């Protein structure tokens, strides 16, 4: 189980990870990040980075901010 500091580095490097409620996996060539079972971010096979900006909870907002910081998105 990875902590948020390790997770942020793995997200930056597009590496798979597993935290308590946050998971990063490859589905085919697409890197997807899930909070619980909800898709909150992905990197397509063309390198396009997408973050789901929907507000779910305080925890998910924190996770979305970790992803933004890892990818240099403001």
What would you say this structure looks like, in words?
This protein is an alpha+beta fold and 74 residues long. It has helices spanning 4-12, 58-71, and strands at residues 17-18, 22-27, 30-35, 38-43, 49-51. It has a 5-stranded antiparallel β-sheet, with helices on one face. The protein is globular and about 30 Å long.
Entry keywords:
single chain; 31% strand; 31% helix; alpha+beta; 2 helices
Termini Cα gap? 27 Å
Q: Spans with pLDDT under 50 lasting ≥5 residues?
A: none
Q: How confident overall, as mean pLDDT?
A: 96
Outline the biggest β-sheet.
Answer: 5 strands, antiparallel
The outline comes out as globular
Please identify the structural class as seen in this structure. Answer: alpha+beta
Percent strand = 25-35%
How many structural domains in the coordinates?
A: 1
- Rg over CA atoms: 11 Å
Order of strands in the sheet with most strands: 1-2-3-4-5
How would you summarize the topology of this molecule?
Blueprint: H1 4-12, E1 17-18, E2 22-27, E3 30-35, E4 38-43, E5 49-51, H2 58-71
Helix pairs in contact: 1-2
Short note summarizing the structure:
By secondary structure, the protein is an alpha+beta fold. The chain is 31% helix and 31% strand. The chain has helices spanning 4-12, 58-71; strands at residues 17-18, 22-27, 30-35, 38-43, 49-51.
């Amino acid at each position: 189980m990875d902590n948020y500091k390790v997770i942020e580095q793995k997200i930056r490097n597009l590496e798979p990870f597993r935290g308590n409620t946050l998971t990063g996996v490859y589905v085919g060539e697409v890197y997807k990040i899930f909070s619980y079972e909800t898709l909150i971010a992905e990197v397509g096979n063309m390198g396009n980075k997408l973050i789901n900006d929907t507000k779910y909870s305080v925890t998910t907002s924190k996770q979305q901010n970790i992803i933004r910081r890892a990818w240099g998105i403001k």
